[in-house]
User: Fold NUDIX domain-containing protein from Rudanella paleaurantiibacter.
Amino acid sequence: MDYNQPTKNFQKEVAEQCIRYLSIDGVIFGFHQNQLNVLLLRWKGTNEWCLPGGFIRKTESVDEAAERVMQERTGLNELFLQQFHVFGAVVRYDQDAVWRKINLNVDADSWSERTISIGYYALVEHSKVVPTPDFLTEECRWWPLDEVPGLLFDHNHIIEVATRALRRQLNDQPISHLLPESFTIPELQRLHETILGHPLDARNFYKKMMASGTLERLTERRAGTPHKAPYLYRFTRSESQA
Amino acid sequence: MDYNQPTKNFQKEVAEQCIRYLSIDGVIFGFHQNQLNVLLLRWKGTNEWCLPGGFIRKTESVDEAAERVMQERTGLNELFLQQFHVFGAVVRYDQDAVWRKINLNVDADSWSERTISIGYYALVEHSKVVPTPDFLTEECRWWPLDEVPGLLFDHNHIIEVATRALRRQLNDQPISHLLPESFTIPELQRLHETILGHPLDARNFYKKMMASGTLERLTERRAGTPHKAPYLYRFTRSESQA
Assistant:
């Protein structure tokens, strides 16, 4: 498929309206069937995948640019976003090799010779997302974190750094955004275990969560479970971010 | 003092060699006499203070730019640096008001209409630093964190965000960089208390530190103390960063 005329226009538009040398990359995490997933895009006419991303308009803040990109790819009006790292190496990946893989003619006049990318991760409720490709891509879908293929650019590295950041920030981040409004303690434990990558002791986990003062027990219980129906909980407050 | 000719040359140089729209700001933390200090610069011919900062050359990575700036201001060849936040609002501060305060004629052709700043903090051993002004400033010195005056740009806000990040990362960061090679447990506790802003229980702190597996007790003890000489410790490994 020839998509080079629209991409030429796109490159010109970016060069005029956006901040040269800078981009946004987004690692959108969802939690489903005890797996952490990330949202990936497949480039038109190829089998090459990458993260959602975009550029920062001169008239918008960096956070607004990130929100715009993530909202467009998820269909969500509100989502929890966290800056986690700036990828600022002079050579982040082999540009020519990437352009060849996706059959892209890059206009050297309007395109910058390097791109510094500001990484954001988003925590979203899996079931609410409507994965939506952009005009350069033809597929947008969830991939389990441990099955992510070799990606374009340095996007595997970006996912790795995002996952480490999420793991480190597990106790101060509003991971409630990854869960439906109400959930059981074992469900919350699965989420923690999935992010950390190792099992946790159920009794200690329960104690720690109760001591945190962030959970409220509801009067309803989870229906349709084979054993005694477990209580449902919800978070009492949305935690603040930096 | 007229420093406008050199600053004109500087602006031209930055416009040619550096990445437009982007800057680095550095919050350099030192720990001295149970106080957390930050390194500030005073602009030539004024009583206006700000953080050390600079621009990213097209040929260097963002990390290299940050290292260069921090090394120049501290005289240290190696220092522990951590990216903590990108300040990307469209209007971060009143530019004209800042230029007036420091009597700077800004060349609108070579200067960008907004600047996105990548914040780094550095953890340094206070006694090893040789505070060194740059060519725009005439004084560089430590300020206790709780006595920092109203600063130029949005630098009070940047310090606030850096301090929150340091506090949050207290347990995974190599805060060993803020201490001399060997130290007593009470000295380490003072550092934690200073960063957190509240006292800690000595017995629990001791237990937690011993359980962390990061400390090694030396055979020497701290000399010159009025009571029984306490043991000296050091960190056994340098912790990794993202």
Observations:
- Helices of chain B lie at 4-17, 62-74, 95-101, 155-168, 185-196, 202-212.
- The longest helix of chain B spans residues 4-17.
- Chain B touches chain A through 29 residues (CB under 8 Å).
